Amino acid sequence: MYQVKTYNAIVQAGFDRFTDQYQINQTDDADAYLIRSVDLHQQVFPKNLKVIVRAGAGFNNVPLDKATANGTAVFTTPGSNANAVKELMMAMLVAASRNLFAAADYAAHNSGADISKRTERDKTKFNGTELLGKQLAVIGVGHVGSLVANAASQLGMQVIGYDPYLSSDAAWRISTKIKRAKTLNAALKNADYVTVHVPKNEETTGMIGAKALSAMKDGVTVFNFARGGIVNNTEMLKALDSGHAKGYFTDFGSDEILNRQDVVITPHIGGSTGEAETNGAVQGAETIMDFLETGNVLNSVNLPNLSAPFNTPYRITVMHQNIPNMVGQIATALADANINIENMSNAAKDKVAYTIIDVQHLQKHDGEIIDCLSHIDAVYRARLLRK
After folding, report:
1. DSSP line for 72-98
2. Lowest-confidence region among 86-90, 227-231, 361-365
3. Deepest of 16, 142, 260, 278, by most Cβ within 10 A of its Cβ?
4. What ranges in the chain are assigned the alpha helix state H?
5. Closest-CA residue to 249 (of 58, 79, 92, 64)
6. 1-81+273-302 has which CATH code?
7. Which GO terms describe its molecular function (predicted)?
8. 130, 203, 256, 275: which is the annotated catalytic residue?
């Protein structure tokens, strides 16, 4: 029986996905956490905690170093809220081009007997532009960016994408009408609108700063519905104050960008739809079950992707440091226990490696094998699974 602890409101569809091998919120000493936005940085993880799944695309609320040291795999549910973010982004793109927020605010505060005449006289203040034929630069064309690029192209926009880490799977999702830039500046230089859809990390934090903004043409409108901090707000304000940029639309508020007519802020609602929450909960439950029952890894933040058919009675998985001779030490320990390896797979991601070993027979008690492997220096966690 596996124990799952949840944080935040997880929709029932996620709970319904778990089989009768799982108990939900029966103990704090859980095998798995299924979370959304809870901040785990101050949490003390139980040693039994094998996996954390965040129902969403980001993982800034999970302390990866602490999780890894505990032997805990961390996963996200990429793509689960992609359509929701895409639809919000497209709504903001239309709103920006037609000055809808300023127009609606004017109309809401316009009253009196001559309202019709004043409206006709003043409405030219809110003249917008059509999106047809305008150029949109999409920075990051993964799950969300590819949807935005395709949708904008269907509206008749000229779309250019930039993503130095474009995966083959993502490439299949992108319309052949989308042009691909080789550099960030090449994507930005002729864009009427710029939108970012990249994960937040050391490389992308502040990527839309002074240099990137200076590469854009005058009158550009910038959108950030990815993560706070990808656009440097200080430099963005300088571009707005100088008239170089026309507007900034973002899902991430901060004090310095409040109360400006040229900035529109939404309260982090990109993935806030019932459908997205259901998708994340269901995908999260399936990720937990697959990892706990097979040891296979897909979409982990701190482990490499590694999957293999589970066709033997037993499977041993080892999460360990990515240093020389780890696989050799693991294989030697199993040989010393008179255990023959049927299949072995190994992969690494940065400083962490993961090994899957399939065996037909065990010559020692389960606990002895796992204890032996766990005491190898640089091993974070060893597990024994039964088919």
Report:
1. -EEEE-TTTTHHHHHHHHHHHHHHHHT
2. 361-365
3. 142
4. 12-17, 64-69, 82-97, 100-108, 115-122, 143-154, 168-173, 184-188, 210-215, 233-241, 274-294, 326-336, 366-374
5. 92
6. 3.40.50.720
7. NAD binding; phosphoglycerate dehydrogenase activity
8. 256
User: What was the pLDDT predicted at 19?
Assistant: 97
167 or 230, which is more confident?
Answer: 230
227 given a catalytic annotation = yes
Q: How many residues does the chain have?
A: 387
Closest CA to 137 of 104, 184, 172, 100: 184
- The class of domain 84-265 in CATH terms is alpha beta
Does 84-265 match 1-81+273-302 at the fold level? yes
Q: CB neighbours of 267 closer than 8 A, spacing ≥ 6? A: 251, 253
Catalytic residue among 36, 197, 227, 320: 227
pTM attached to this predicted model: 0.84
> Residues of 146-174 as b/e, b for ≥16 C-beta within 10 angstroms?
bbbbbbbbebebbbbbbbeebeeebeebb
Q: Is the pLDDT of residue 113 over 60?
A: no
Residue 151 corresponds to which tokens in the numbers above?
A: 């949708």
Alpha helices (H) in 189-325, listed in sequence order: 210-215, 233-241, 274-294
Residue 235 designated active-site: no
The pLDDT, as a whole number, for residue 116 is 64
Query: Residue 249's closest CA among 178, 325, 210, 195?
Result: 195
- CATH topology assigned to domain 304-387: Alpha-Beta Plaits (3.30.70)
The one catalytic residue among 118, 173, 180, 268: 268
Q: Domain map of the chain by residue range?
A: 1-81+273-302, 84-265, 304-387
d(CA 149, CA 101): 24
Residue 126 is predicted with a pLDDT of 81
Whether residue 367 has pLDDT greater than 90: no
